[in-house]
Amino acid sequence: MKAKTVGFAGQIIHYSPTNVLGHVARHPLGVGLHAKCLGWYPKAQGHGIQRPNGLDECILIVCTKGKGWAEIDGLRLKVAADQVLFIPSNKPHAYGADDNDPWSIHWMHFSGSETASYAIMLPAREYVLSIPVADAKEIASMFRESYRLASSGLTERTLLLVSHILRPVLGLLFFQTGRSLGGCSRAIAHDLSKSIEFMRANPARSLSLQELSRHAGLSPARYSALFREQTGSSPVEHHIRLRMQTACHSLDTTALSVKEVAAKLGYDDPYYFSRIFQKIIGCSPLAYRRSVKG
Questions:
Q1: From residue 92, how far is each of 70, 105, 128, 190 by CA, in Å?
Q2: How does pLDDT run across 222-232, given as a tens digit for each residue?
Q3: Strand partners for 96
Q4: Domains detected in the chain
Q5: I need a surface site. Which of 16, 235, 283, 288 has the fewest CB within 10 A?
């Protein structure tokens, strides 16, 4: 990659040298994801791109301030601070900064065998992801670390490091509970993180679906559907898993007997507790305690 410093005041651009990128794209640790180019455009007045045929790579644009827009699938999309524009490969598109309040953006073009798996997670015709402020700051920090690495010289090793920074960025975007996708407000209105905190705070109780949905302010059916959509499991199943995680912690850090651990978690029958533990963790409580960890 070579850095370019002309254009927007303070901008950063790094392009991967073709020969080095070729090695990274064939490397076992780079074949899944590898960055082709990345950069930072602060207050990018007049920024605009049109690609009628798209690109053979994915594009990630993280807006930190100001506003921008995108046109994809005949849709005119708005992009604001703490939002991310994700453009899949081979998707015709255009995007640019707002005339009156131009965006400041971190951006990256990336490719690899894993990219389609992320792109397919986008709801149909939705390409803008809203992210919590804390996640936005963490993502911006990871981009800055990528620039620091790139500025030291783009070797195969450095490009592999940048590629591995990309993975947690995508993890925050696609796997964070309560994520809001596109302009859809459903996840914002029903962020289930507070519900999960309620579960964590009550490991010694058997929480019913009715109580959990009431706490979330939703009907049981709607709550269950949203919870499964965002976590992949039912609310009650998730709470049981959290209770077993608490059991593991007690078995690791205390001398309590299995019966005492069970009672601490609200299980009157230690045999029933052991069966649940075996089902979730994959071994008995005693076998778990005796196992070598770390």
A1: 11, 20, 15, 32
A2: 999 888 877 77
A3: 48, 69
A4: 3-181 (2.60.120.280), 190-290 (1.10.10.60)
A5: 283
pLDDT in the model for residue 147 = 93
Q: How far apart are CA 95 and CA 52, in angstroms?
A: 11
Does the CA dihedral 57-63-64-68 come out positive or negative? positive
Contact 139, 62 (CB under 8 A): yes
Q: Which of 82, 166, 78 is nearest to 126 (CA)?
A: 78
Q: How confident is the model at residue 1 (pLDDT cuts 50, 70, 90)?
A: very low
Per-residue pLDDT at 184 exceeds 70: no
The answer to whether the CB of 45 falls within 8 A of the CB of 8 is yes
Q: What is the 3-class SS of 55-111, one letter each residue? A: CCCEEEEEEEECEEEEEECCEEEEEECCEEEEECCCCCEEEEECCCCECEEEEEEEE
Report residue 215: phi and psi, to 5°. Answer: -65, -35
Q: What is the pTM of this model?
A: 0.70
Q: CB–CB of 90/54 below 8 Å? A: yes
Q: Is 177 left (phi over 0), alpha (psi -120 to 50) or beta?
A: beta
* 87/57 Cα distance (integer angstroms): 9
Nearest to 64 by CA among 40, 100, 36: 40
